[in-house]
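**Sequence with structure:**
===
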Amino acid sequence: MDRGERDNWRMEIKDIRLQNLRILIARAGSITDLAERVGTDRNYISQILSPTTKANVGTRLARSLEAAFHEPRGWMDQVHNELTDAQRMYVKLFGELPQELQEQAIEYLKFLAKQHGKAPPPNQADKPDSAKNPPRPKK
């Protein structure tokens, strides 16, 4: 089993499709451009991206996105290792931090994710209060 298959096994399809939607938005240039290209409403795409709604990329939209972006059928259902410009910037900046600050940055990102309704990965959930009150990066 290769890494992509392991990642698919660990992630739920709704999360994989959401991740791939973000990749396609980056390719399109904006939510509006993606929505126009697929022939759907911009607000619907925004609802899917919102952490406060339960809207997901359904099968019909997934297949429409694949067709609009000339990807093979099923592409939306697989993990891809493409990074957005923002993700590349985070990786670059993270790599420039000393080890101590990298650990603080990870704890702070876990804290932010928890505040926005994203639970930490299962192997991190039982760690003591680090996600509740992470150390703030020193300025």
About this structure: The helical segments are 3-10, 13-28, 31-38, 42-49, 59-68, 85-96, 99-115. The chain has two domains: 3-77, 85-124. Confidence is low (pLDDT under 50) at residues 124-128.
